[in-house]
Amino acid sequence: MPRLSSQSIPEVDPVLLAEAFSSFTEAAASLERSYGQLQKEVTRLRMELEETNRDLIRSLDENRLMHERLNRILEALPCGVVAIEADGRVILANPEANRLLGANRDFRLPSWMGELLRHVPPEGSELEYQAEAGAEWMAVRRAELSGEAGDSSIFIVEGISGLKRLEREHEGLRRRQALAEMSVTLAHEIRNPLGSLELFAGLLAESELAEEEQGWVRHLQAGLRTLAATVNNVLHFYSQPQPGLTVMDLGEVLSSIAQFLRPQAEANRVRLEVELGFKQLPVAADRHRLEQVFMNLALNAFRFMQQGGELKIRGRTELRDGSPKAVIEMADTGAGILPEDAERIFRPGFTTRTDSPGLGLAVSKTIMEQHGGAIRVLPKSGGATFELEFPVLRSGQ
């Protein structure tokens, strides 16, 4: 190994060396200060970034919650909401819209529905539509989104079948009201001359006419009473006046009603039998209204016994629900009542005959209820049997 002589090592100036060390020390101190500042800046930036991240996370959570709320609102809306892009793509549809429009889970509408929506007029008007008879009616409104929101349309779809039904019912009610007013007016106009005709027919019946002419008079009286019953049914059904209840003997009332019905029964070749298991039975009743009930039931029986027959009126008393009741049965030998019609015969307008307005039994039911009683049809293999139930007054009432 070669050896270096002391003459090859240059001498270093101590002053320069001191200056070099001083410069190095200053540079190191400056670098240390810069590093400290850098650490502070990094710490500050990290804190700002963390704060920004927290704000972003909070904003994302708020947006997610808002999105969930909007979805719940859309799902709970009673109307359908559909958003469609300009190219026809459905980008939003709530469950009600899917139900009304028939869209699938991929928000795809049937072609005919997409074509319909394109014909919905713009802002301020709506389109009512029913796909086919029996299908649900829909009302569709449209709102256009443009500019920053993009060229898309929002459709509000509402099922209006219930509203349409109410409109039809209202129109039907209005027409029935008009018909009722006209019917009552006509009934009042007919009632006065009809009363005069009944009076004159009664006078003819009491006159000394031959048997053949007396038969004509009885037929005339029967026709007039039938017409009077129809007029009274119209008046009682549409006006429904409250009965004027007075205490009377039900046995005497029924005997009188039977005498009143006999000419009518004879004219229809019907044998009328009355069997009462009571006498002097006190009830609170409106005599005229009760006569209307028995006339309605008798006329129904006569109509279904065109070839003649028998009508029996039987009365008895029973204890029902702890209270004494008068029970009257009217049984005929006519065609009877179908089981499926037993509940419907008391509905206004229900009839199995084209020559009857279907008001007699409905009026009878109302009258019986106004008397605190009831009327029902009893099951029977042949003919029809109606049961009337009256409350009997106790002593002191």
Give a count of the beta strands, DSSP E runs of length 2 or more: 12
The CATH homologous superfamily name of the largest domain equals Histidine kinase-like ATPase, C-terminal domain
pLDDT under 50 segments (min length 5)? none
The secondary structure category is: alpha+beta
Proportion in β-strands = 15-25%
Share of helical residues: 40-55%
Q: Give me the Rg, rounded.
A: 48 Å
Number of helices: 8
In quaternary terms, these chains amount to single chain
How many structural domains can be distinguished in the coordinates? 4
Distance between the termini: 153 Å
Order of helices and strands: HEEHHEEEHHEHEEHEEHEE
Strand order of the largest sheet: 2-1-5-4-3
Second CATH tier, the architecture of the largest domain = 2-Layer Sandwich
| CATH third-level topology of the largest domain | Heat Shock Protein 90
Largest sheet: 5 strands, antiparallel
Overall body shape: rod-shaped
Assign the CATH class of the largest domain: Alpha Beta
Nearest-integer average pLDDT: 79
SSE diagram, text form:
Layout: H1 14-76, E1 80-85, E2 90-93, H2 95-101, H3 111-118, E3 126-130, E4 137-145, E5 152-159, H4 161-206, H5 211-239, E6 246-249, H6 250-267, E7 270-276, E8 282-285, H7 287-303, E9 309-320, E10 323-332, H8 360-370, E11 374-378, E12 385-391
Verbal overview:
By secondary structure, the protein is an alpha+beta fold. Helix 4 packs antiparallel against helix 5 and helix 5 (211-239) crosses helix 8. It folds into four domains: 23-74; 78-159, PAS domain (Beta-Lactamase, 2-Layer Sandwich), CATH 3.30.450.20; 168-239, Helix Hairpins (Orthogonal Bundle); 242-397, Histidine kinase-like ATPase, C-terminal domain (Heat Shock Protein 90), CATH 3.30.565.10. It has eight helices and twelve strands. A hairpin with a 6-residue loop joins strand 3 and strand 4 (137-145).
